[in-house]
Design brief:
This protein has about 800 residues and is of the alpha+beta class. It contains 22 helices and 33 strands. The strands form seven sheets. The protein has a nine-stranded antiparallel β-sheet.
Length: about 800
């Protein structure tokens, strides 16, 4: 939604002559989001031909004349795409390049260098864009700068505590829009907040961080914050104005509240700020562009905060055009195209203008929005842009950095503008339901905007555990009461039972050592399980259960029970667990998605037909057992007779369908993966099994005996490498990508392991996915996690953390709302 009062065409000669722009071709890097739609609309109104470099064709298609499709986060790919476009479209002459998006400042500067356009060179842009480098630049040039450090380790945090004055500020080196910028008041909370920022900075919340996720810590500068917007051409400042910020440092987080232009600071202070800005621009070597500079006026003089090498966001364009009659979009285009700017700045603004962000007080869902039509009739009303719609999530710190939109109003003086803003805001009504974006609360149908969703007491009690997890902050993770769902045996039988018993004990001991309150939930005593889960105060279940009624086929039912009781749990959902038990269905899915897997067939009865194009030797295995039950050296057959014998054993003796695969000679890789969706997937170092040392009469496979027979793998001639050694990066990458696709297709949660065979020609074949694999000490997953820097306790806590994140970011039972195909 965008309402604005049209500016009059007569600007007393101060507007740029735009007739010279018609017919010119501009390369625009990134369309930006729809909140920047007004920019592209203005560019088209100027009569420009727009060539847009973007990752895809999007909402701006009606305004764009030519697309160059490339991943703008991949600078090499983007530059090559521009080169190809120029080569293939010789009739199109690109006259200049621009971006209005912080993410692509560095890419645009590289394009400037590579194609000799007018703009800011990469060497300068890199220095200004990187906040740490900018701080060092100021220090080396005797320009005021706070004490600062690039923080990566606990040693750096210790140094800050010993030598910095508090409060201090933590901020991403490449951040934008104040995302993740946090004030720390004292030493006691520094490490906790630093770790919280470090663990949560993400391109999903702030895409500008694709340039890097380093963290800067600096002493907090107390003073009045201002913005300086400048038009710079050929080293000469053609226009500038200073604007005041309102409540930028309110609370723990630095969130834009509003700005007013012109500044109300004393003229002497403004002169000092401008002199500092001019000095920095000159020493950086910035010659041309629209610059958005942030600074603070302090008792010790002006301090620079950061420099943005593009048009300021949100209402900057609106209030500068309204107050000073300067169109910064027009100026940016003329500078990029090399057309001389002649601007005569008026001594006093046409109006005093305030821009104001429309913020929610808390994260939630926008459930009400109304704008009184009287607002548009007010003389002081300048512009209003709403970026959210009813039903949209609005996330405020620490969950996110959203706002609903912004408004600009004017007045005859700053006090008059403030009064007008207060009245204007009374015409805008909005309500954000207070709950997490993944919650069901607040999403019920409302008959009117003012009605309140009603929930009965039993429903609120039912969702209480999930809602607690959603609201949990990282520092309170160890306050959780963790239930350990496992299988306990009074008399340990075989090796499998011993494994099932000891994994629960090891997890319990490790979590208790880290301060968790834990309870054993023995699914071998199912009657007690129900009562324990219903009446206990367990917050989250670590689901290690592999059997119910002594059957692994019922393993998915443990997760289903936890879903029914609305108790959060680690690991995969019942649908995925049940699916992966059925190896035939998994094969069908892998084949459907073109995941490489050995040629295969299956039978349920001895007289079922088998594909005649399968080539011996063949691997014959039960289609619904785990722990390699039913697999031995006879499982690989070389002729029809052996095939029929093995089929009979499995169907008659094990009462299981039969999966038949072509035998793949080669090494076997275990690909361990953490995460629940593409935003947090992590492939751990690969484990490799080499079978070349096995006896000549043995097939190169894992059997039940080699896994649970009590002997070491070395005794069977199997060499296990963790991590895999002597393997090309290309093959590692290929195996990992195929494993990730498999993990994603089968909707695995939190952690899992994909088994892959690689033949003698380095062709990988997926054998199966093991969701909720055993995570006992010494098992594959914890071992490779240790290679990645996590000891056993860290690994278990990472699973808990990922589980909490999953419940925070997804609606309850989302796995039941979609079908895997």
């Amino acid at each position: 939604m965008n309402l604005n009062r049209e500016q009059k065409s007569s600007d007393n000669g101060r507007s740029v002559d735009n007739e010279s722009l018609r017919g010119k071709t501009l390369l625009l890097v990134n369309t930006c989001s729809t909140k920047k739609k007004f920019i592209i609309q203005r560019l088209k109104k100027l009569g420009l031909t727009l060539v847009v470099l973007n990752k895809d064709k999007n909402w701006a298609q009606t305004y764009v004349d030519h697309w160059i499709i490339a991943d703008t986060y991949n600078h090499s790919e983007s530059i090559q795409a521009v080169r190809n476009f120029i080569k293939e479209n010789t009739q199109i002459k690109i006259d200049g390049v621009l971006t209005f998006w912080e993410d692509d400042v560095l890419l645009t500067s590289k394009i400037v260098d590579r194609f000799n356009f007018i703009g800011i060179p990469f060497s300068i842009a890199k220095k200004a864009r990187n906040k740490y480098n900018f701080r060092d630049f100021c220090r080396l040039n005797s320009i005021n700068a706070p004490r600062h450090i690039l923080a990566r380790t606990a040693v750096d945090i210790k140094l800050v505590c010993e030598s910095f004055n508090f409060p201090i500020v933590i901020k991403p080196v490449y951040g934008a829009s104040s995302a993740h910028v946090t004030k720390v008041l004292n030493k006691e909370e520094l490490l906790q907040i630093f770790n919280q920022v470090k663990n949560n900075i993400s391109t999903n919340l702030e895409s500008a961080l694709t340039d890097g996720t380093d963290i800067l810590i600096e002493e907090y500068i107390d003073g009045d914050e201002v913005d300086i917007d400048l038009v710079l051409q050929n080293g000469k400042i053609k226009f500038y104005c200073i604007s005041d910020n309102y409540d930028k440092n309110k609370g723990e987080f630095f969130v834009d509240r509003g700005q007013a232009t012109p500044s109300s600071l004393p003229e002497k202070v403004q002169d000092e700020i401008f002199a500092m800005t001019e000095e920095i621009l000159e020493k950086l070597g910035i010659q041309s562009g629209i610059i958005h500079f942030e600074a603070k006026a302090t008792s010790k003089g002006p301090y620079p905060i950061e420099i943005n090498l593009r048009l300021g966001g949100d209402y900057v364009y609106s209030y500068i055009k309204g107050a000073w009659r300067i169109d910064l979009i027009d100026c940016a285009v003329k500078i990029a195209l090399g057309q001389y700017l002649k601007i005569k700045k008026i001594e006093e603004p046409k109006k005093y203008i305030i821009g104001w962000d429309l913020h929610a007080e808390h994260s939630g869902i926008l459930v009400e929005l109304s704008i009184d039509e009287k607002l548009n009739k007010k003389k002081y009303f300048e512009d209003l842009q709403i970026n959210k719609e009813i039903g949209d999530a609005v996330l405020v710190p620490p969950e996110g950095y959203d706002y609903l939109g912004w408004i600009t109003v004017s007045g005859d003086n700053i006090l008059d503008a403030q009064d007008n803003l207060k009245e204007a805001l009374s015409f805008i009504k909005y309500n954000v339901a207070k709950f997490h974006k993944a919650s069901s609360i607040g999403k019920t149908l409302r008959k009117t905007n003012s009605s309140v969703a009603m929930f009965n007491k039993s429903m609120l009690l039912g969702v209480a555990k999930i809602e607690k997890i959603k609201r949990l902050v990282n520092k309170d993770q160890r306050k959780l009461h963790i239930g350990i769902a496992c299988n306990v045996y009074d008399e340990i039988g075989g090796a499998v039972e011993k494994e099932l018993m000891t994994v629960g004990k090891n997890v319990e001991t490790t979590l208790q050592s880290r301060g968790y309150n834990t309870s054993f939930i023995n699914f071998n005593n199912f009657d007690k399980v129900i009562n324990q889960l219903k009446t206990g105060d367990i917050d989250l279940v670590f689901n290690l259960c592999e059997r119910i009624n002594d059957s692994s086929l019922l393993e998915p039912h443990a997760a289903a029970l936890l879903d029914i009781l609305q108790i959060p749990y680690t690991g995969s959902n019942p649908f995925t667990l049940g699916l992966c038990i059925d190896k035939i269905k998994v094969k069908k899915l892998l084949t459907y998605h073109n995941i490489p897997t050995p040629n295969w067939d299956y039978v349920y009865n001895l007289d079922d037909n088998i594909r005649d194009d399968l080539e011996f030797p063949l691997m014959i295995k039960p289609a619904n057992t785990d722990n390699s039950i039913g697999i031995n050296n006879d499982s690989v057959v070389v002729d029809e007779k052996g095939l029929r014998e093995q089929m009979k054993k499995i169907i008659v003796e094990l009462n299981s369908p039969v999966l038949i695969e072509e035998y793949i000679e080669g090494d076997e890789y275990d690909v361990s993966i953490l995460g629940s969706d593409e935003t947090n997937f992590r492939v751990l170092p690969l484990s490799r099994s080499i079978f070349q040392n096995m006896p000549k009469d043995k097939w190169h496979i894992y059997t039940h005996d080699s896994k649970f027979g009590g002997l070491s793998l070395k005794d069977f001639g199997i060499v296990e490498q963790r991590p895999a050694k002597g393997v090309s990066k290309k093959l590692i990458s290929l195996i990992s990508e195929i494993a990730l696709d498999t993990y994603n297709i089968l909707d695995c949660h939190d952690y899992g392991r994909v088994e892959v065979r690689v033949d003698e020609d380095d062709n990988p074949y997926v054998l199966e996915l093991n969701p909720n694999p055993s995570i006992n000490t010494g098992n594959c997953l914890p071992s490779v996690a240790e290679l990645a820097g996590m000891d056993y306790g860290d690994f278990l806590e990472e699973i808990i953390r990922m589980t909490i994140e999953r419940y925070k970011n997804r609606p309850p039972y989302y796995h039941l709302q979609s079908t895997i195909i």
